[in-house]
Amino acid sequence: MIGRLLLNRLADLALVLFSVSVIVFFMIRFIPGDAVAIMLGANTEVTPERIAEMRARLGLDLPIVQQYAQWAGKALRGDFGTSLWTGRPVLDEIAVHVWPTVQLTVLSLVIGAVLAVPAGVLMARLRGQAADAAMRVVTVAGLTIPSFWLGIVMILVVATVAPGLQALGYVPFSQDPLGNIGRLLLPALALGLPILANLSRLVRSAMLDALSQDYIRTARAKGVSERKVLYKHALRNALIPFVTSVGIMTGYLLGGAIVVEQVFAIPGLGRLILGAIAERNYPLLQATILVVTSGFVFVNFAVDLLYLAIDPRVRA
C-alpha cells in the first residue's frame, strides 16, 4: 500500500514538472521583445541578415514546438543549455546564485514554522482571554503586511537606529559565518513573520478542534496533566494540517524570496530570474523557474512522506 502511494506521488511529481516546463517554455516566448535584438543592441551594423543568422545559430528560427522538443530532450539528459549572454552552462549560473536563496528560505521557514507551534498552542490555551485576543490581532496584521514592505521598513529602522549596521548585501557563510547570518536575519524576518502569523492561527484552530474531542475529555477525566494533554494528545493531531501548510508555505517563501532579495540586494535566484527576463535569456529563465518549481514539488513530496509517520490512517 505504501509503495503504491509513493509511486502515485512520484507520477504526480513527473506530471507537474512536465506541465510547468511546457507552460514556462511557451509563456516566456510571449514576453515582448526579441532576445537576439536585445543581445545585438542598437549597433548600426545590425542588419536583418545578421539577426537572422544569430537566430539560426541559437535555434530560435525553428518552430516553437520543435524548440521545446529539443530543449526537453536535452534537459532529460541533464543538459539545460547555455546562457545566451555569457555562453556558460545555465546550471553553472544557477549554482552560483542558488545558495543565498536556499539559506534565506530555510531561515525564514525556521522562523515561521518553529515559532508558530508554541505561539499557536499558547493562543489555544489562553482562548477567550485578553492575551489571546491581542495575539490574534497581531497575527491578522502579520497576514496583511507584504514582505517587501516589511523589509523596506526594517531597512529604514536599522538605518535610523543603528546606521553603522550593514543590512544589505550578502556574505558567503564560508567567508564570514556571523556576517552571513547577520545579513540574512532581516530578510528572513521579513519573509518569516507573515508565515508565523498564518501558521500560528492554523495551529490555534487545529488545537481548539482537537481539545474539543472526546479522547481529550477522557484523558482529563483520567487525571492526565494539562501539559501532557496539550503536547502529547492534542498537538499530535493538530500537526497534520500544520505539516500540509508548511509545504505550501515553502512555495510561498520561494516566490516571496525573489522580491525580498531585490529589496536587500541579495544575489540569489530572484536577481537571476529578473535579469533573465530583462535579457530574454530563455535557457536561463526556463531552467531557473524549473529549479524553483522542482524545489516546491519535492518539498510537498516530503510532506506526503511525513503524513505516513504522523497519521497512520494515511497508510490504510
From TrEMBL:
Q: Give the stretches traversing the membrane.
A: 12-31, 106-126, 138-161, 181-199, 238-264, 284-310
Pfam families named among the record's database cross-references: BPD_transp_1, BPD_transp_1_N
Domain of life (superkingdom)? Bacteria
Q: Keyword Aminoacyl-tRNA synthetase, does the record have it?
A: no
| Residues annotated as domain ABC transmembrane type-1 | 98-307
Q: Which UniProt keywords apply?
A: Cell membrane, Membrane, Transmembrane, Transmembrane helix, Transport
Cell compartment(s), UniProt: Cell membrane
Membrane topology note: Multi-pass membrane protein
Q: Which family does it belong to?
A: Belongs to the binding-protein-dependent transport system permease family.
What name is this protein filed under?
A: ABC transporter permease
**Organism, per UniProt?**
Alsobacter ponti
